[in-house]
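We now fix the convention by which a protein and its fold are recorded. Think of the row as the fold of the chain written in a discrete alphabet. Here is one such record, which you should read through line by line.
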Amino acid sequence: MALNVRLRSVVTRAFYGGGRFLLFVGLVLFGIFHVAPAQTGKTYCNPIDIDYKYNFEQKARNISFRSGADPVLINHLGEYYLFGTIADGYWHSTNLRDWTHVKPKGWPTNDMVAPAAISAKGKLFLFPATYEQRPIYVLKTGNKPELEIFNSSLPFLPGAPGPWDPAFFYDDGTDRWYMYFGSSNFYPIYGIELDEHLSYRKTAQELIALRPESHGWERFGRDHRDTIKPFIEGAWMTKHRGMYYLQYAAPGTEYNAYANGTYVGRDPLGPFTYAANNPVSYKPGGFVTGAGHGNTFEDKHGNFWNTGTPWLAVNFDFERRIAMFPAGFDSEGLMFADTRFGDFPHFVSTGKWTHAEELFAGWMLLSYRKPCVATSVQYPYAAANLADENPRTFWLAGSSKAGEGVTIDLDHSCEIRAVQVNFTDYHSGIFGSGSNVYTQFRLQHSQDGKTWKDLADVTREKRDRPNAYVELGEPVQARYVRYEHVHVGSPKLAISDIRVFGYGPGDAPRTPARLQVRRDADRRNAFLSWEEVPGSVGYNIRWGIEPSRLYQCYQVFADDGTKLEIRALTTDQNYSFAIESFNERGVSKLSSPVSVQ
């Protein structure tokens, strides 16, 4: 029975492609605005550029949306496999940048939701979330990928409902298997040991639960302002230097504050201690907001990454995409993810990096609030929405015919390095990928708005790219960027944002002065203010448990003002805060930290 969450507090949350079914059962580098990358490599930009599949589960309500939920990204024998909810298969990559969708032989007709995946003992195991009995698979990779059944049907789970949102863990030091699971605003995250056949051993144990009365970031709602009882889900286990990091997501998918946290222990089943720097992956501001419910993996160069599902929610509350952030463990064993400029271009790894900030390409946002002129507009979906850095607003063209388009005036000549085109599924009526679902367009540039040259041309491709990211082979100097439409699968041409990256003229902005921080009587909250920096595009509020561990970042655009309330603090933890400003040229030096008790 589907029930409104606001009417029930004792519930279990189950994701079917994002749908909610309620069942009763680093080191911080101060004074440096950009760190040159240790190695050259091509870039990616969140949300990652894949052909997100249309979800069919809301077809009865005629709600069409793409599923970008519950990602698990696996390094299997030096290649990468990305799984998710209702993905009709998986995505494969050799470099974490270029992805190809694969539907292997034997893929279940009822698809998979929030699957567990793990590479262990030379095999890639896969298991969907379920409250029933489903097989555990082994994915046979190579030229003819195929799903083979490893365990035809797990017995019913002893001691807990589920397993929903499962995660496998193999401890190679002890040759023992475990499963973690849970998706609820009543039940905790559970763990259970498995035998060599991946069947249950003993009974599920309660491991961790939310404590929103102490952990501000675990409160529900936008910026943690809702009174709904929050949800815990998205379990994942990482072993690093003999310690076990039990990752979880909270407080709920639908808003900007979705994040990953972790508890740490010396045994796979605990006891576990709350990490002082939680949440470890948090991105409440910017274009991509929300970083929860993903996994942590190590790439083939020995670098760590953390994945999550940013919030979109244009057509459906649980509509989302997938993001990937550099991550790591510091000298004290604290796990962290670097979400600073987490929706700007970053280099993919081509070797081992020392600091996560090395991967930031340094290409700045050139298109924010710039004038946009479209060939046609359906009121009230104005062309100005293309430059507002909000994926929930969009431009809707008068038709989806080839030749429709929009021109962005960057106000001055800029060095353009990359463009991201983010399409919106407006009344698409699509519930599965067909031969007509592909994306074709042309990008052009001009200095005077009269003479145009090609910037990028994807008119011959038949790939579906709802978040198309185009990195230029060589930088281009131009004032105007034009999108010329050719084809989308949807009957409507709608684009949320065309984001242009590179370097504008002038100098990087100065450091904001007079940063003030006041801890609220409710110690989960802090109030910040600072002095405006003229000419800045925005500010990064960076904070953490020590001046040298400012792992958290809240991006604020300059036209939103110079005040911010942060509601993600832990009551018994002291914090330090600093601020930097950024414009189209670069980033200021970081301010001196301000510490509060």
